[in-house]
Amino acid sequence: MSKITVSTLNKMKHEKQKITALTAYDASFAKLFHDNGVEVILVGDSLGMVLQGGDDTLAVTNSEIAYHTRCVRAGSRELFIIADLPFMTYSNPADACKNAAELMRAGANMIKLEGGEWLHDSIRAMTQQGIPVCGHLGLTPQSVHVFGGFKIQGREQSQADKMLSDAKALEAAGAQLLVLECIPSELAKRITDELTIPTIGIGAGNQTDGQILVMHDLVGISAGYIPKFSKNFLLETGNMPAAVQKYCEDVKSGAFPSTEHEFK
Ligand code: KIV
Ligand code: NA
What we know:
The chain is α/β, with parallel strands linked by helices. It has 12 helices and 8 strands.
């Protein structure tokens, strides 16, 4: 696979080729995913749940994300890696830049943070200093205690309109990619159509420019349960490389996610 950059991702949006993404936290899985068709790897703060066994992502530190980013980078020099800024590491532009720089030095190509229009100054400061930014709207897990649980977002019209204006604000501030998590498919389509930058969905239907899953969900080993929007690709393929290939194939064709995995 040739090297993926933000230019590749933009081109893919405009040519309507779906972007394939998965989370990874170590070199072996990162290499396996890359070798089998995954274009974007996220070192997500979901590691607080799937690696550390936490009930949410709040305890994850920037050094932990940096450590796992180094591990993932060791899997391949070619990977396009997004790393998450954890809870409360980007409360102001100075902190955002300092913590994002640590993750860039660990090997990330882009930094993701959760939230809307209030991030404007931080995103501007980061992009001006050479740090590419990915936004994240919808069910932003760092706000789980504000939401009162892991619940679908954007069902009310006013919430949906606010999310669209937040998405536009993130793009205007300089974000180059946007993750949309657990929102109605119609809203994800509306946001995707109105933005120039690509969108990557999880639990947001199949009209976004790409898809991402937490790797543990793809192989059915998340503690507890498989979320409605996810699918165990290992079950139908029997081995890891085939499961990853099938996921990529189904994302590319639009077969995944199907209506059973979406929120109306
Ligand atoms: O941390 C993570 O894995 C994420 C994805 C679910 C988008 O942010
Ligand atoms: Na995350």
